[in-house]
From TrEMBL:
One of its GO terms (molecular function) is cyclin-dependent protein serine/threonine kinase regulator activity. It comes from the Eukaryota. Residues 1-10 have a biased composition (Polar residues). SMART domains: CYCLIN. GO terms for biological process: regulation of transcription by RNA polymerase II. May be an activating cyclin for the cyclin-associated kinase CDK10. Residues 43-141 form the Cyclin-like domain. Coiled coil: none annotated. The keyword Transferase does not apply. This is Cyclin-Q.
Length: 256
């Protein structure tokens, strides 16, 4: 039987904040609240991933696992931060950067209890560890064990190197296009847009936005540079990614 609200361990409830829901708000309010929760939880995944020394792709995989899981289940049923911890654990396995459950639990504990010492290896710790492992199995079942994903990172790396060769090296050195596009790419994982758009489109759109932000112009030929690099992508595709990304930044302002 899959765990419901009553099956959450007391250790998990003590470690992470509950995702409470009011009794009958408008659907729009529900969606907005859920989006804010997912934004905050993915920010936790990213910050915890940094503290755990995880590479960019395993952290991205953890975010995709999280979004795909809650695409299938209700946020009112499962503790999102516990799911996030399990996603970090599972992503480490998928991307061959194994992370110990003890390290994930301690980093998470410090995240919510700043300045506190690590948890003792008592019943509370072992209950929480069991919750993380059981939740990992639940995620695997919900996703039908489809846990390998294609990320935009490799495409963005290729696109950045290709564009760099077309720009005056002095102009390129003055504008942190590469750094900005990578930061924009990372931000895409705060929301479900990372699973709603093709990885190539996300990569092209983040680079397009970075170039426009610094006013970097590329040579114009029969095709635009983004059509040359990513066959089949349209301006509509790029605009759709950028629109979703800007909505995420608006969400960030509301979450502060």
């Amino acid at each position: 039987m899959e765990p419901g609200p009553s099956s959450r361990s007391s250790a998990a409830r003590d470690l992470v904040p509950a995702a409470g829901r009011s009794s009958g708000p408008a659907r729009e309010a529900d969606i907005s609240r859920d989006m804010k929760t997912h934004f905050r939880v993915c920010r936790f995944i990213m910050e915890a991933g940094v503290k755990l020394g995880m590479r960019s792709v395993p952290v991205a995989t953890a975010c995709v696992l999280y979004h795909n899981f809650f695409k299938r289940v209700s946020l009112s049923v499962y503790e999102p931060y516990l799911v996030a911890m399990s996603c970090l654990y599972l992503a480490g396995k998928v991307e061959e950067q194994h992370i110990r459950t003890r390290d994930i639990i301690n980093v998470s504990h410090r995240y919510f209890n700043s300045g506190s010492p690590p948890l003792e290896c008592d019943k509370e710790f072992w209950d929480l560890r069991d919750s993380v492992v059981q939740c990992e199995l639940l995620i695997l079942r919900q996703l039908n064990f489809q846990v390998s994903f294609e990320h935009p990172h490799k495409y963005l790396l290729h696109y950045v190197m290709s564009v760099k060769s077309l720009v005056n090296r002095h102009a390129w050195s003055r504008c942190p296009v590469a750094e900005t596009s990578w930061a924009l790419l990372r931000d895409c994982y705060h929301g479900s847009m990372c699973i709603r758009h093709m990885p190539q489109h996300i990569a092209i759109a983040t680079l397009y936005l970075a170039l426009n932000s610094y006013g970097v112009e590329l040579p114009v030929g029969e095709k635009r540079w983004w059509q040359v690099l990513c066959e089949g992508v349209t301006k509509v595709d790029i605009d759709a990614v950028i629109s979703d990304l800007l909505q995420l930044y608006d969400m960030e302002a509301k979450c502060i």
